[in-house]
Amino acid sequence: PVSGVSLAAQPPGGQVAEGDRLVLGCSVAAGTGPLSFSWYRQGSAAPLATGPRYELRAARHQDGGRYYCTASNGGTTADSPPLQVTVVGERGPSPS
To answer: In the chain, what are the domains?
Structure first.
């Protein structure tokens, strides 16, 4: 079975400046066979992406939220703990 699913963020902590790149990585501590990964944002049922990495090339305010990944080896599926992604700051003049 798949177990020990963990999520890592670059930059660490999941806090990213608006317009900057955010990369999330999913890994498992244990699991045999070919692993597949899916990415979700809490509140959305459809997967955002598949694969061990999820990248936001230019983060926007609406990209903030809790993200998690699921790992499956075809038999069992396990979720990572959610990671809170925070998009801070603005580029250019702020709206008045």
So the answer is: 3-88 (2.60.40.10)
